[in-house]
Amino acid sequence: MAPREPGRVRMRVLMEPRHGARYADILALALATERAGFEAFFRSDHLLGVDPHDPEYRPTDCWTTLGGLARDTSRVRLGSLVTAATFRPPGLLATIVASVDEMSGGRIELGIGTGWYGREHDAFGLGFPATGQRFDRLDEALAIITGLWATEPGAEPGFSFAGEHFRIDDNRTPPRPAQRPGPPIIIGGAGPKRTPALAARYATEFNGALGGDLRERYAIFDRACEVIGRDPGQAGHSAVLPVACGTTSADVQRRAEVIGSEFMRTHAAIGTPQHLTDRIAELAGIGADTVYLHIYDVHDLDQIALIGAEVLPHVPGAARPETGVTS
Protein backbone atom coordinates (compact mmCIF):
# COMPACT_ATOMS: atom_id res chain seq x y z
CA MET A 1 0.00 0.00 0.00
CA ALA A 2 1.20 3.51 -0.79
CA PRO A 3 2.09 5.75 2.14
CA ARG A 4 -0.68 7.87 3.59
CA GLU A 5 -1.21 11.11 1.71
CA PRO A 6 -0.98 14.04 4.14
CA GLY A 7 -4.09 16.19 4.15
CA ARG A 8 -6.22 13.85 2.04
CA VAL A 9 -9.33 12.21 3.48
CA ARG A 10 -10.93 9.34 1.61
CA MET A 11 -14.72 9.46 2.02
CA ARG A 12 -16.69 6.22 2.02
CA VAL A 13 -20.25 5.11 2.69
CA LEU A 14 -20.89 2.21 5.08
CA MET A 15 -24.36 0.69 4.77
CA GLU A 16 -25.95 -1.06 7.71
CA PRO A 17 -29.71 -0.89 7.07
CA ARG A 18 -31.88 -0.82 10.18
CA HIS A 19 -34.23 -3.49 8.85
CA GLY A 20 -32.03 -5.23 6.30
CA ALA A 21 -32.52 -4.76 2.57
CA ARG A 22 -33.21 -6.34 -0.79
CA TYR A 23 -30.45 -6.36 -3.40
CA ALA A 24 -32.32 -3.75 -5.45
CA ASP A 25 -32.22 -1.39 -2.45
CA ILE A 26 -28.50 -2.03 -1.84
CA LEU A 27 -27.69 -1.43 -5.52
CA ALA A 28 -29.65 1.82 -5.57
CA LEU A 29 -27.68 3.09 -2.57
CA ALA A 30 -24.36 1.99 -4.08
CA LEU A 31 -25.15 3.76 -7.35
CA ALA A 32 -26.16 6.90 -5.44
CA THR A 33 -22.83 6.69 -3.61
CA GLU A 34 -21.00 6.44 -6.92
CA ARG A 35 -22.92 9.38 -8.43
CA ALA A 36 -22.30 11.55 -5.36
CA GLY A 37 -18.53 11.21 -5.74
CA PHE A 38 -17.64 9.00 -2.77
CA GLU A 39 -14.51 6.89 -3.07
CA ALA A 40 -16.06 3.63 -1.87
CA PHE A 41 -19.21 1.79 -0.82
CA PHE A 42 -18.98 -0.74 2.00
CA ARG A 43 -21.55 -2.91 3.69
CA SER A 44 -21.73 -4.68 7.03
CA ASP A 45 -21.64 -8.47 7.27
CA HIS A 46 -24.61 -9.24 9.52
CA LEU A 47 -27.53 -11.64 9.42
CA LEU A 48 -29.47 -9.99 12.26
CA GLY A 49 -30.16 -6.39 13.13
CA VAL A 50 -29.87 -4.51 16.40
CA ASP A 51 -33.15 -6.10 17.53
CA PRO A 52 -32.77 -9.86 16.98
CA HIS A 53 -36.57 -10.26 17.12
CA ASP A 54 -37.33 -7.60 14.50
CA PRO A 55 -39.72 -9.37 12.08
CA GLU A 56 -39.05 -6.75 9.40
CA TYR A 57 -35.32 -7.50 9.22
CA ARG A 58 -34.33 -8.96 5.85
CA PRO A 59 -30.90 -10.66 5.97
CA THR A 60 -28.65 -10.67 2.92
CA ASP A 61 -25.27 -12.30 2.44
CA CYS A 62 -22.49 -9.72 2.36
CA TRP A 63 -20.30 -11.29 -0.31
CA THR A 64 -23.12 -12.40 -2.58
CA THR A 65 -24.35 -8.82 -2.77
CA LEU A 66 -20.82 -7.46 -3.21
CA GLY A 67 -20.45 -9.81 -6.16
CA GLY A 68 -23.56 -8.26 -7.69
CA LEU A 69 -22.29 -4.76 -7.00
CA ALA A 70 -18.96 -5.68 -8.59
CA ARG A 71 -20.78 -6.05 -11.90
CA ASP A 72 -23.44 -3.36 -11.43
CA THR A 73 -21.15 -0.47 -10.40
CA SER A 74 -18.23 0.92 -12.34
CA ARG A 75 -16.01 3.15 -10.19
CA VAL A 76 -16.45 2.92 -6.42
CA ARG A 77 -14.32 0.58 -4.41
CA LEU A 78 -16.33 -2.08 -2.57
CA GLY A 79 -15.84 -3.99 0.63
CA SER A 80 -17.00 -5.32 3.98
CA LEU A 81 -16.76 -3.61 7.35
CA VAL A 82 -16.47 -6.09 8.75
CA THR A 83 -16.72 -9.71 7.70
CA ALA A 84 -17.02 -12.07 10.65
CA ALA A 85 -14.24 -14.65 10.38
CA THR A 86 -16.63 -17.11 12.08
CA PHE A 87 -19.00 -17.10 9.10
CA ARG A 88 -16.80 -18.77 6.45
CA PRO A 89 -13.75 -21.07 6.50
CA PRO A 90 -10.65 -19.04 5.54
CA GLY A 91 -9.82 -20.99 2.38
CA LEU A 92 -13.36 -20.49 1.12
CA LEU A 93 -13.37 -16.81 2.14
CA ALA A 94 -10.07 -16.23 0.30
CA THR A 95 -11.66 -17.68 -2.83
CA ILE A 96 -14.90 -15.72 -2.47
CA VAL A 97 -13.08 -12.41 -2.03
CA ALA A 98 -10.69 -13.15 -4.89
CA SER A 99 -13.62 -14.02 -7.15
CA VAL A 100 -15.44 -10.77 -6.35
CA ASP A 101 -12.19 -8.83 -6.80
CA GLU A 102 -11.79 -10.28 -10.29
CA MET A 103 -15.45 -9.53 -11.06
CA SER A 104 -14.95 -5.90 -10.03
CA GLY A 105 -11.71 -5.34 -11.92
CA GLY A 106 -9.72 -5.00 -8.70
CA ARG A 107 -11.96 -2.77 -6.55
CA ILE A 108 -12.46 -5.03 -3.51
CA GLU A 109 -11.28 -4.62 0.09
CA LEU A 110 -11.69 -7.11 2.94
CA GLY A 111 -12.56 -5.80 6.37
CA ILE A 112 -12.39 -8.75 8.75
CA GLY A 113 -12.81 -9.34 12.48
CA THR A 114 -13.45 -12.01 15.07
CA GLY A 115 -17.25 -11.76 15.00
CA TRP A 116 -19.07 -10.50 18.10
CA TYR A 117 -22.83 -11.04 17.82
CA GLY A 118 -23.51 -14.31 19.61
CA ARG A 119 -27.28 -14.32 19.08
CA GLU A 120 -26.74 -13.91 15.34
CA HIS A 121 -24.56 -17.02 15.26
CA ASP A 122 -27.11 -19.02 17.23
CA ALA A 123 -29.95 -17.95 14.95
CA PHE A 124 -28.14 -19.24 11.85
CA GLY A 125 -26.43 -22.30 13.29
CA LEU A 126 -22.91 -20.84 13.25
CA GLY A 127 -20.33 -21.73 15.86
CA PHE A 128 -19.37 -18.98 18.28
CA PRO A 129 -16.27 -19.86 20.34
CA ALA A 130 -15.02 -17.90 23.33
CA THR A 131 -13.25 -14.58 22.69
CA GLY A 132 -9.68 -15.90 22.98
CA GLN A 133 -10.38 -18.73 20.56
CA ARG A 134 -12.03 -16.37 18.08
CA PHE A 135 -8.83 -14.28 18.06
CA ASP A 136 -6.74 -17.42 17.57
CA ARG A 137 -8.94 -18.47 14.66
CA LEU A 138 -8.76 -14.99 13.12
CA ASP A 139 -4.95 -15.08 13.34
CA GLU A 140 -4.86 -18.40 11.50
CA ALA A 141 -7.47 -17.24 8.98
CA LEU A 142 -5.40 -14.17 8.07
CA ALA A 143 -2.30 -16.31 7.59
CA ILE A 144 -4.24 -18.62 5.27
CA ILE A 145 -5.99 -15.89 3.28
CA THR A 146 -2.83 -13.86 2.66
CA GLY A 147 -0.81 -17.02 2.09
CA LEU A 148 -3.18 -18.33 -0.55
CA TRP A 149 -3.34 -14.97 -2.32
CA ALA A 150 0.46 -14.74 -2.44
CA THR A 151 0.93 -18.27 -3.81
CA GLU A 152 1.61 -18.57 -7.52
CA PRO A 153 -0.48 -21.13 -9.42
CA GLY A 154 1.45 -24.33 -10.00
CA ALA A 155 3.98 -23.56 -7.27
CA GLU A 156 5.77 -26.63 -5.93
CA PRO A 157 5.15 -27.26 -3.19
CA GLY A 158 1.79 -25.57 -2.98
CA PHE A 159 0.58 -23.52 -0.04
CA SER A 160 0.18 -25.48 3.18
CA PHE A 161 -0.80 -24.44 6.66
CA ALA A 162 -1.13 -26.46 9.86
CA GLY A 163 -2.70 -24.63 12.78
CA GLU A 164 -4.71 -25.50 15.81
CA HIS A 165 -8.00 -24.66 14.11
CA PHE A 166 -7.40 -24.81 10.34
CA ARG A 167 -5.32 -26.87 7.95
CA ILE A 168 -4.48 -26.34 4.27
CA ASP A 169 -2.72 -29.18 2.45
CA ASP A 170 -0.53 -28.43 -0.60
CA ASN A 171 -2.82 -26.03 -2.48
CA ARG A 172 -1.32 -25.56 -5.95
CA THR A 173 -4.39 -23.89 -7.46
CA PRO A 174 -4.89 -20.88 -5.17
CA PRO A 175 -7.54 -18.19 -5.67
CA ARG A 176 -6.34 -15.40 -7.97
CA PRO A 177 -7.53 -11.89 -7.09
CA ALA A 178 -7.12 -9.10 -9.61
CA GLN A 179 -5.10 -7.05 -7.10
CA ARG A 180 -1.68 -8.42 -6.31
CA PRO A 181 -0.67 -9.76 -3.93
CA GLY A 182 -4.28 -9.40 -2.85
CA PRO A 183 -7.06 -6.99 -1.91
CA PRO A 184 -6.37 -4.53 0.92
CA ILE A 185 -7.22 -5.87 4.37
CA ILE A 186 -8.88 -3.75 7.05
CA ILE A 187 -8.71 -4.72 10.73
CA GLY A 188 -9.96 -2.65 13.60
CA GLY A 189 -11.44 -2.48 17.04
CA ALA A 190 -10.99 -1.11 20.51
CA GLY A 191 -8.80 -3.85 22.00
CA PRO A 192 -5.36 -2.65 23.15
CA LYS A 193 -3.33 -5.81 22.46
CA ARG A 194 -4.34 -8.51 20.01
CA THR A 195 -6.29 -6.34 17.58
CA PRO A 196 -3.49 -3.82 16.90
CA ALA A 197 -0.91 -6.63 16.81
CA LEU A 198 -2.89 -8.52 14.15
CA ALA A 199 -3.50 -5.30 12.22
CA ALA A 200 0.22 -4.47 12.27
CA ARG A 201 1.02 -7.85 10.71
CA TYR A 202 -1.75 -8.10 8.13
CA ALA A 203 -3.72 -4.89 7.60
CA THR A 204 -3.34 -2.15 5.04
CA GLU A 205 -5.76 -0.08 7.13
CA PHE A 206 -6.50 0.09 10.86
CA ASN A 207 -10.01 1.13 11.84
CA GLY A 208 -10.29 2.75 15.26
CA ALA A 209 -13.96 1.80 15.84
CA LEU A 210 -16.41 3.93 17.82
CA GLY A 211 -16.09 5.34 21.30
CA GLY A 212 -13.03 5.90 23.46
CA ASP A 213 -9.84 7.75 22.56
CA LEU A 214 -9.33 7.35 18.82
CA ARG A 215 -6.01 9.17 18.86
CA GLU A 216 -4.65 6.72 21.43
CA ARG A 217 -5.88 3.73 19.44
CA TYR A 218 -4.01 4.97 16.38
CA ALA A 219 -0.90 5.48 18.53
CA ILE A 220 -1.15 1.94 19.91
CA PHE A 221 -1.46 0.56 16.39
CA ASP A 222 1.52 2.61 15.20
CA ARG A 223 3.61 1.27 18.09
CA ALA A 224 2.55 -2.28 17.21
CA CYS A 225 3.85 -1.66 13.69
CA GLU A 226 7.16 -0.39 15.02
CA VAL A 227 7.56 -3.46 17.25
CA ILE A 228 7.62 -5.73 14.18
CA GLY A 229 9.73 -3.34 12.10
CA ARG A 230 6.92 -2.01 9.93
CA ASP A 231 6.75 1.66 8.98
CA PRO A 232 3.45 2.92 10.47
CA GLY A 233 3.18 5.36 7.59
CA GLN A 234 2.56 2.46 5.24
CA ALA A 235 -0.80 1.72 6.89
CA GLY A 236 -3.98 3.78 6.86
CA HIS A 237 -6.01 5.05 9.82
CA SER A 238 -9.78 5.01 9.41
CA ALA A 239 -12.83 5.97 11.46
CA VAL A 240 -16.55 5.24 11.38
CA LEU A 241 -19.00 8.13 11.78
CA PRO A 242 -22.76 7.49 12.02
CA VAL A 243 -24.60 10.24 10.16
CA ALA A 244 -27.93 12.04 10.24
CA CYS A 245 -27.44 15.04 7.97
CA GLY A 246 -30.06 17.48 6.72
CA THR A 247 -30.75 21.08 5.85
CA THR A 248 -33.86 21.28 8.05
CA SER A 249 -34.40 20.25 11.66
CA ALA A 250 -37.18 17.91 10.53
CA ASP A 251 -34.87 16.08 8.13
CA VAL A 252 -32.15 15.81 10.76
CA GLN A 253 -34.57 14.46 13.36
CA ARG A 254 -36.08 11.95 10.95
CA ARG A 255 -32.68 10.61 9.98
CA ALA A 256 -31.46 10.52 13.57
CA GLU A 257 -34.40 8.35 14.59
CA VAL A 258 -33.29 5.65 12.13
CA ILE A 259 -29.84 5.28 13.71
CA GLY A 260 -29.70 1.87 15.30
CA SER A 261 -28.93 2.50 18.97
CA GLU A 262 -28.36 5.15 21.60
CA PHE A 263 -24.64 4.32 21.59
CA MET A 264 -24.48 5.06 17.86
CA ARG A 265 -26.45 8.30 18.27
CA THR A 266 -24.05 9.41 21.00
CA HIS A 267 -21.13 9.20 18.57
CA ALA A 268 -22.99 10.31 15.44
CA ALA A 269 -22.75 13.52 13.44
CA ILE A 270 -26.34 14.76 13.72
CA GLY A 271 -26.96 18.12 12.12
CA THR A 272 -26.29 20.27 9.08
CA PRO A 273 -23.80 19.66 6.27
CA GLN A 274 -21.48 22.16 7.97
CA HIS A 275 -21.66 20.19 11.22
CA LEU A 276 -20.77 16.99 9.36
CA THR A 277 -17.91 18.76 7.57
CA ASP A 278 -16.57 19.94 10.93
CA ARG A 279 -16.78 16.45 12.43
CA ILE A 280 -14.85 14.99 9.50
CA ALA A 281 -12.20 17.68 9.97
CA GLU A 282 -11.95 16.73 13.66
CA LEU A 283 -11.35 13.09 12.74
CA ALA A 284 -8.72 14.13 10.21
CA GLY A 285 -7.02 16.19 12.90
CA ILE A 286 -6.86 13.12 15.14
CA GLY A 287 -5.17 11.16 12.37
CA ALA A 288 -7.93 9.57 10.28
CA ASP A 289 -7.17 9.49 6.56
CA THR A 290 -10.36 7.55 5.73
CA VAL A 291 -13.87 8.16 7.07
CA TYR A 292 -16.80 5.78 6.69
CA LEU A 293 -20.16 7.54 6.94
CA HIS A 294 -22.45 4.99 8.61
CA ILE A 295 -25.84 5.05 6.87
CA TYR A 296 -28.88 3.26 8.30
CA ASP A 297 -31.76 4.13 5.95
CA VAL A 298 -31.07 2.25 2.73
CA HIS A 299 -33.89 4.12 0.96
CA ASP A 300 -32.69 7.64 1.81
CA LEU A 301 -30.81 8.45 -1.38
CA ASP A 302 -31.41 12.17 -0.87
CA GLN A 303 -29.07 12.20 2.12
CA ILE A 304 -26.28 10.70 0.01
CA ALA A 305 -26.83 13.32 -2.71
CA LEU A 306 -26.88 16.11 -0.10
CA ILE A 307 -23.58 15.01 1.43
CA GLY A 308 -22.04 14.66 -2.02
CA ALA A 309 -23.08 18.18 -2.97
CA GLU A 310 -22.63 20.02 0.34
CA VAL A 311 -19.92 18.14 2.24
CA LEU A 312 -17.49 16.37 -0.10
CA PRO A 313 -16.39 19.60 -1.85
CA HIS A 314 -15.18 20.87 1.54
CA VAL A 315 -13.22 17.75 2.54
CA PRO A 316 -9.56 17.96 1.44
CA GLY A 317 -8.83 15.47 -1.32
CA ALA A 318 -12.29 13.86 -1.35
CA ALA A 319 -13.87 12.90 -4.66
CA ARG A 320 -16.06 15.52 -6.26
CA PRO A 321 -19.61 14.70 -7.29
CA GLU A 322 -19.24 16.44 -10.64
CA THR A 323 -16.40 14.22 -11.84
CA GLY A 324 -15.93 11.36 -9.41
CA VAL A 325 -12.18 12.07 -9.32
CA THR A 326 -9.90 13.39 -6.63
CA SER A 327 -8.50 16.87 -6.52
Supply the key terms.
327 residues, 8-stranded parallel β-barrel, oxidoreductase, two-stranded antiparallel sheet, alpha/beta, TIM Barrel, disordered C terminus, TIGR03560 family F420-dependent LLM class oxidoreductase, F420_OxRdatse_Rv1855c_pred
In short:
This protein has 327 residues and is an alpha/beta fold. 39% of the residues lie in helices and 18% in strands.
Task: Give your account of this protein's structure.
With 327 residues, this protein is of the alpha/beta class. The protein has a domain at 44-183: Alpha-Beta Barrel (TIM Barrel), CATH 3.20.20. Helices cover 39% and strands 18% of the residues. α1 packs parallel to α11 (301-310), α5 runs parallel beside α6 (194-202) and α6 (194-202) packs across α7 (214-227). The longest helix has 20 residues, at 131-150. The chain is globular, with a radius of gyration of 19 Å.
CATH-assigned homologous superfamily of the domain at 44-183 = Luciferase-like domain
| Total of helices | 11
Main sheet, how many strands, which sense, barrel? 8 strands, parallel, barrel
**Approximate shape:** globular
Oligomer, anyone? single chain
Give the N-terminus to C-terminus distance in angstroms: 20 Å
Radius of gyration: 19 Å
Low-confidence stretches: 321-327
| Global mean pLDDT | 94
The proportion of strand residues reads 15-25%
Identify the strand order in the major beta sheet. 1-2-3-4-7-8-9-11
Helix content: 25-40%
Under the CATH scheme, the architecture of the domain at 44-183 is Alpha-Beta Barrel
